[in-house]
Amino acid sequence: MNTRSLQCFIMVYEKKSLTAAAKDAYISPQGLSKVIKQLETELDAELFFRGTHGMEATESGELLYARARHLCYLMEDIKKEISIINGSRNALNIIATYSAVSSYSLDTLYSFGERNPEIQMTIREYPDASPLEDLFQEQADAGIVLGHERISNCDYQILHSGETVLIVPSGHILSGRKTVSLRELDDMALVVKSVVPGEEQGFADKCREAGITPRIRYESENLASIHHLCEQREVAGISIDFLEESFPDRSLEIVRLEEKIPQNLYFVSKHREIQNQAVELFRRYILNQRIKLR
């Protein structure tokens, strides 16, 4: 008994005709009749009898029909899972946001592909403010991203814990400070990282909670641009501590916020009952690199 014979049985049951079922199954009526007889031999039971309305199922036939669809679906699921494990094992599409590349360089990411040449690896960089949900649904198997809340039906694991910090140029009113309260930023001119349209960032939420309204003078996704604006315009900027540690600027000082605003880096992958082996290999590699970075 195999899924093909079960599918043929289902067609005969539903069409109540060998001729009509044979047409849908792309097989001759004689060939389909042999398939049914083989099933009856294997099950040691009669499955059909000729009634007034064509091929009618016996009690055994009714029982088999009640189970046959589930068995076919189960076999298809098994084939899909095996395909994920083996068939698609050689393909790996990775998304890395700009903040991720600050901690895991492209050289580090591509080294995984060099160590596993049998895997066809593709890495695409995107701004942190990109619509990650759409990207994951359409093309990504896994990614290293800033925050995971925007991505549904995914598994995630924290890679690097960070927090929002203030960066100020020398001579700024907050220069020389180790920490600052959000209340001190009320009506202060700021440069901030761009956020996803329609979504708020943790900094804006915290400002509302504190009842303050900073003056957002500039927005940029590019860290170098934020640094440049802070220096040239002599304004404070909002950044992330691990980004500043990765790309230090001697002309700017880091001032930590008393109100902690988490900015964490995550490994994210599509949720599957059985994970693609290439994704699992890459996840282990990234976790090992995280340990080395500490």
From TrEMBL:
Keyword Transferase: no
UniProt KW keywords: DNA-binding, Transcription, Transcription regulation
Ranges of residues in domain HTH lysR-type: 1-58
Molecular-function annotations in GO: DNA binding; DNA-binding transcription factor activity
Xref: InterPro entries: HTH-type_LysR_regulators (IPR050950), LysR_HTH_N (IPR000847), LysR_subst-bd (IPR005119), WH-like_DNA-bd_sf (IPR036388), WH_DNA-bd_sf (IPR036390)
Pfam family, one: LysR_substrate
Top-level taxon in the UniProt lineage: Bacteria
Stated family: Belongs to the LysR transcriptional regulatory family.
Name this protein carries in UniProt: DNA-binding transcriptional LysR family regulator
